[in-house]
Design a protein that fits this description.
Shape: globular
Oligomer: single chain
Low-confidence stretches: 1-19, 21-29
Strand content: 5-15%
Largest sheet: 5 strands, mixed
Mean pLDDT: 85
Number of helices: 10
Structural class: alpha+beta
Strand order of the largest sheet: 1-4-7-5-6
CATH topology of the largest domain: 60s Ribosomal Protein L30, Chain: A
Length: 288
């Protein structure tokens, strides 16, 4: 099946013409407990890995919540890997995600603090950090803990995944879809991608690639296929003249979030694409 491209170039500001959002635009509003700064300092490197909000969309948040709670890494070799940061075991919630910044992370950490109090959050996270340092927490155990820690870790991780979806939606992006088992882009897709890239490069953009494999079939195969899809798009970006340092990427196998119907609506993805097609894909995002 030929890969299809759903071009979703979203013009995000109209101030005398189109402009591109910087990744740190849209700083969350609301009161942030000043002691959050102390918690960040005490647990530097352990929370998220190496270093404007509208009201929350409850339907979107519930979709992410259900996806996150459904994850089961038991029996998966990747689930046995040890994790090194409290909130960074998912690649999209860690510090390496250029669409998230410190303000986004503080917002959702402050949400947990507002719910159960600073002292409880501090005690819990320091205990988690100690277990991480001792190499006691696997990826499978991390997801189990996030699902069960409904007052602290779950709201933070869920909130960061929500924030990531919002950031993708408010930046120019294009969804590249692939055939089952394929990492090849068709010629018409490449032409559409080239137009997207040319427009973004002219504005000084960098690019984030988020590869996905569906959750049907063998997990390890899908994870490898997801990586191959990202590498395929990276190769085309190089061919278009994009410098390698302007490109970053992640690939998700079983990890959330999948592009659910709710997320597809936020991304304004073609309604004709079913869930399988949406998640056999690479999301290409332009940001500054």
């Amino acid at each position: 099946m030929r890969a299809r491209v759903v071009v979703l170039i979203m013009v995000v500001l109209a101030l005398g013409g189109s402009s591109m959002l910087a990744a740190d635009d849209g700083v969350p509003s609301g009161n942030i407990d000043p002691r959050t700064e102390d918690l960040f300092a005490d647990l530097e490197g352990s929370l998220f890995g190496a270093e404007s909000d509208s009201e929350v969309d409850e339907v979107l948040m519930e979709s992410i919540h259900e996806d996150l709670d459904s994850i089961d890494f038991h029996g998966d070799l990747k689930g046995e890997e040890k994790v090194e940061s409290i909130f960074g075991a998912n690649p999209l919630t860690g510090e390496a995600n250029p669409l998230l910044n410190t303000s986004h992370r503080k917002r959702w950490l402050s949400t947990a603090i507002a719910g159960v109090g600073y002292d409880n959050v501090e005690k819990h996270l320091k205990r988690q950090a100690k277990d991480l340092e001792a190499g006691k927490v696997s990826r499978s155990e991390w997801y189990d803990h996030v699902a069960s820690c409904t007052k602290i870790c779950n709201p933070v991780v869920q909130g960061l995944l929500y924030e990531h979806v919002r950031q993708v939606a408010t930046h120019p992006h294009v969804l590249l879809t692939f055939g089952t088992g394929s990492a090849d882009l068709a010629a018409d897709d490449l032409r559409s991608m080239e137009r997207f890239v040319d427009s973004a490069v002219s504005r000084g953009a960098q690019f984030l690639l988020i590869g996905r494999g569906s959750r049907t079939g063998n997990r390890e195969f899908n994870r490898t296929l997801s990586a191959r899809r990202v590498e395929s798009v990276k190769a085309e970006l190089r061919r278009f003249g994009v410098a390698s340092e302007a490109v970053s990427g992640f690939w998700l196998g079983y990890e959330p979030p999948q592009i659910s119907g709710e997320i597809a609506q936020v991304y304004r993805i073609d309604h004709s694409l079913d869930e399988l097609s949406r998640n056999q894909s690479v999301m290409l995002v332009a940001f500054r």
